[in-house]
């Protein structure tokens, strides 16, 4: 079970070394019950290695890892039944039909049902949840790429996990499917108290989903905070734009509130289309990663600490 203070993931000083190369350096973070944690980082940053260690599929070199109250290296079947994994892709089961595959996989979770968590998910409810009702009787080989991805998600959550790991879960989704997936993640977190840790390269998706964002670069966590906290960590300047007498103006300032106040004192109701833009998550991400790659990750972490302390 989660610790008494509601911590589901507790990682401290995690290190991973292959031969003479360190790929993870003292990675430390926590996640609480029902929290959606999004892990960002360039390719090779250590995201997949971190998740594989948390899932119990890879042995770490050093550090402490506590997942749902257990060390993943020694997790038993009951522990594993409480965890869901959405892989980047499933490559087999082509001859199965959607409903029969989910029925089959769900049966493995039935012995681990408890008074608090009924396992597995009802198959038809789950199929509806991921938007595959019309394909319930279809062979998996006939599904489109987006439908196949929805099935990947259903397979990952069929056991009603308390903790769900997802690696690039919306790759191949069209905009409507991506929106449905976001709704599903929010339902899992808000109504089922599922803790979700996912990786994505889609920064817009990260901003929509995340309670907190971790940014990895060079095997180190260089930022840990909400999307708003991360944006404020580098947003020394804001861009103010407005229109007066059909003319568009843009001004950059470190004191946007004071500037807008003075603007209204000067022009009053003559101002229209006023917009104050702080750094976007994409701006923040690119800035922090550039700092890390140039050797300034300590400055990046220090800046974030000043905002969130």
TrEMBL record:
Pfam families: ABC_tran (PF00005)
Coiled coil location: none
CDD domains from the UniProt entry: ABC_DR_subfamily_A
Key word DNA repair present: no
Cited Gene3D superfamilies: P-loop containing nucleotide triphosphate hydrolases
Cellular localisation: Cell membrane
Primary residence: membrane
Family matches, as SUPFAM superfamilies: P-loop containing nucleoside triphosphate hydrolases
Domain ABC transporter: 9-243
Keywords: Antibiotic resistance, ATP-binding, Nucleotide-binding, Transport
Designated name of the protein: ABC transporter ATP-binding protein
Organism name: Rhodococcus daqingensis
Upper classification of the organism: Bacteria, Bacillati, Actinomycetota, Actinomycetes, Mycobacteriales
